[in-house]
Write a structure and sequence with these properties.
The protein folds into two domains: 4-41 and 232-300, no CATH class; 47-230, no CATH class. It is α+β, with helices and mostly antiparallel strands and 339 residues long. 33% of the residues lie in helices and 24% in strands. The longest helix is centred in the last third of the chain and has 29 residues, at 272-300. It is built from eight helices and 17 strands.
């Protein structure tokens, strides 16, 4: 198996460059990252799961217009402290890393507006919610509410996402852009027992972790299986490259940086003609590199992520008939041996 050092030495010796080995290794790392940021590399694909906590509707809450404080009765307070709904407790998937799942960062609604929970405070031992913004609707005392996790943190090293599957129903989720989700479901009012059907990338959290919104929000803890592609790591001396990576193509990418390095050295020595040769070589290698990147992705292209999940970790499916949603799917499902 080729190492980072092998590619760096091969590129340096190909043109007899004077750049140091450590600098060439850094260029190998940069080109590998460029390749990984351009598309989905199979070597960086991972399979993971996340559990979306059930909507909390326990007890009653009091909202005051213009105030960012929400208080609740004893039942609501208990649910806020534990971060879990007591409804259907025996029929819910367990939360992963339960101590980290608090109501902070979730959203609460009692009419039509969602308010983000900024903090869970204790005043005289009594818990209450502090919102990020003041309540903008009419005041109400001891009313029903819904407290949901709208934005779910994904692995911090995730760069791209593949397919998402709801494990309880073994149903592939549909990806929407944020604009499509806002146009289709602008108010996000549904909290459904069937769990989420669509997902979208909201953006990045403060620490760079990706945030995903699953909708509708579930009334029970829902386990979601998904594939994602890691951010390319910084390559260090001696590290082994993936077996299916074309190291010859990676060497061409490194040669671009080597030629630019030599061109800069020639210009500092007022060797304009020599610098021009290195510039032309750099442009030639850059054209080759762009073409080879496209070729690498064609060769590396693997099975659809949904197929990978469904056929390796779930029951056999044909299309999306594990969960029938339309009359057409129902009719087609009766033509074959579908579950």
């Amino acid at each position: 198996m080729a190492t980072v050092d092998d590619v760096a030495r091969a590129a340096l010796s190909a043109v007899g460059a004077n750049a140091g080995l450590l600098q060439a290794i850094r260029w190998v790392s940069d080109r590998y990252r460029q390749l990984a940021n351009r598309g989905k590399l199979r070597a960086l694909r991972r399979i993971d799961n996340v559990v979306i906590p059930a909507a909390i509707t326990d007890g009653l809450a009091t909202f005051t217009r213009g105030s960012d404080i929400v208080t609740g009765d004893a039942t609501a307070q208990q649910a806020w402290v534990t971060g879990q709904s007591t409804a259907n407790a025996d029929d819910q998937a367990p939360l992963l890393n339960a101590p980290e799942h608090t109501v902070i960062g979730r959203f609460i609604r009692y009419r039509r507006v969602w308010y983000r929970v900024k903090n869970l405070e204790f005043v005289g031992g009594v818990p209450r919610l502090r919102l990020s913004t003041p309540v903008a609707e009419d005041s109400t005392s001891l009313t029903a509410y819904k407290l949901v996790q709208r934005h779910t943190r994904m692995p911090k090293n995730a760069r791209f996402f593949g397919g998402f599957v709801q494990q309880r129903l073994w149903r592939p989720l549909t990806q929407l852009s944020l604009d499509e989700l806002n146009l289709t479901y602008p108010e996000r009012l549904f909290v459904a027992g069937t769990g989420p059907e669509v997902w979208t990338v909201i953006g990045d959290d403060e620490d760079g972790a990706r945030l995903i919104e699953f909708y509708p929000y579930p009334t029970r803890n829902e386990a979601i299986l998904f594939t994602y592609y890691e951010r390319a790591p910084e390559l260090k001396p001696g590290m082994t490259l993936p077996d299916d990576l074309d190291v010859e193509a990676l060497k061409i990418g490194v040669l671009i940086d080597i030629c630019r390095f030599e061109m800069a050295n020639a210009l500092r020595m007022n060797q304009v003609d020599v610098a021009g040769v290195w510039r032309n070589e750099s442009a030639r290698f850059e054209t080759l590199w762009m073409n080879r990147m496209d070729e690498l992705f064609r060769v590396d292209r693997s099975d659809d992520d949904i197929k990978v999940i469904l056929h390796t970790q779930g029951p056999p499916t044909f299309g999306d008939f594990t969960f029938i949603r339309t009359a057409r799917q129902d009719a087609i499902s009766r033509l074959g041996n579908f579950p």
